[in-house]
Each structure stands twice: as structure tokens, then as C-alpha cells.
Amino acid sequence: MQIQPDRAPQDKEQQDEGAVFRVPERIPVFPLPNVVFFPKTYLPLLIFEPRYREMVTDAGARGQCIGMALLKEGWEHEYYGNPPIFEIGCVGRLVSVQRLLDGRFNILLQGLQRYEIREQFYDKSYRQASVKLKPRGQEADLEASVRSDLIRVLDEYLGQREDSHLWQGFFRLDVNDEILVNTLSTHLEFTPLEKQFLLEADSLQQQARRLSDLIQFKIHERDGTKGWG
């Protein structure tokens, strides 16, 4: 198979990210109906479709990057083609690739940055896209009030769950704000569309507030069900 040469990134954001790890401007895109990927998180995947096996092989040979994207409603009718996807996703770096005896792959992606699709390409068996990275800028920390409100509603939400002890580590002060917000966005029981809503927030502050609102909604939903049952 022929490997497409990388194009040099033209945006300052893409160049800044490249100072740590260079993300090609054109990347493979892996769309799924139920997965939203966030920066600073890890995503294990089993790759079995032939087109996505080719994608993993190509990504491993050049760029080491795969862009995860959420399929839009109605994808079932053209899944084996190129159904519409949300234009904002997250670029993952291949940190582990295990080829199985039957040709499938176990891979592990490390979330790097959000991206926005500029143009899509269909000249391979899998989809590719020209992307612009969408880092959150200089905002590295949450406002103290935003973080405390998030921890408060999270504590209330988890208080009646049997697995609440598994979440205690998130209440430590030394947990990085971005890791806190993105890990909660990943692992709490939100729908894919709700997670996409979180991913598309313009800032970490906005994502944390949206996250807090969604948790409060689930609290009211749970308590309301009890009250009216």
C-alpha cells in the first residue's frame, strides 16, 4: 500500500503542539457511534474491521495519530460507507499496538488535543481528514469556585452509589484540573451526545460547568424518580 506523505502544519496551534508531539495535519479518522474521546485520557480499542486494520498499520508507519470522532444520528444506514460525523473530535497517539494472531489489533490511544475537521478524504479504505487542532489556550486551571462546585455535586451524586469508594481519588487537591474534568467526562454515565456537548465546550471552565449541570440533572432525575415512584 502507498503511504501518503505528511503535509507540514500551517497553524501556530498545530506547531505549538508539535513542540511536544507532532500531529500531522492530515490524519486517519476512526468514527464510532458510542465513543467520545477526551484529551489527557486513555482509550483501549479492539480493531477488527479490515479497513481499520489498514488504518492502524498506516498510522503506525507514519504519524502515530488517529482522530476519534462521533457518528451522527442515522449512521446505521450507511455504516460501511462514510456516514456523517461531528466535526470536533480528539486526536489520539498510538502508545501501544498489539497484533493478534487472527490479524486484529489491540491498541491504546493517548488523548492529545481536540481537533476540528477542515476537509475529509476518501481515497483509502478508511476516512482521513485535514484537521486544525483546538487547544484550550492558556487556561490551565479552573476557578476555585468552579472546581469546588463540581466536587460538591460529584460527591452528592456518588454518595449513594456502591462504587463511590472507587472515585475518592478525584477529590484530592493534587489532581490536575484538566485530568479531573476530562476523566469525569469520560467515565460518568452520560450519553454520547452529552459527552460530545462536553467535548465541544470552548474552555475548560465551560466544560466543567456543563459537567456540573449534567451531574445535577442526573441527581434530580434519580431523586425525582424516587419521589414520584
How would you sum up this structure, described in words?
- Helices cover 34% and strands 24% of the residues.
- It has helices spanning 12-18, 50-61, 144-158, 177-187, 192-199, 204-228; strands at 26-32, 42-47, 65-70, 88-99, 105-121, 128-133.
- α3 (144-158) packs parallel to α6, α4 packs across α6 and α5 (192-199) packs antiparallel against α6.
- Mean pLDDT is 85; it is low at 1-19.
- The radius of gyration is 19 Å and the shape is globular.
- It folds into two domains: 12-133, Roll (Archaeosine Trna-guanine Transglycosylase, Chain: A, domain 4), CATH 2.30.130; 144-224.
- With 229 residues, it is of the alpha+beta class.
- It contains six helices and six strands, in the order αββαββββαααα.
- Strands 1-3-4-5-6 form a five-stranded mixed barrel.
Identify the notable features of this structure and list them briefly:
229 residues; alpha+beta; Archaeosine Trna-guanine Transglycosylase, Chain: A, domain 4; 2 domains; five-stranded mixed β-barrel; 6 helices; 6 strands
What is the rounded Rg? Answer: 19 Å
Whole-Å distance between the termini? 60 Å
Overall SS class: alpha+beta
Uncertain spans:
1-19
Please tell me what the overall shape is: globular
Note the beta-strand portion.
Answer: 15-25%
CATH fold-type name of the largest domain: Archaeosine Trna-guanine Transglycosylase, Chain: A, domain 4
Widest sheet: strand order? 1-3-4-5-6
Characterize the biggest β-sheet. 5 strands, mixed, barrel
CATH architectural grouping of the largest domain: Roll
- Mean pLDDT, rounded to whole units? 85
Oligomer: single chain
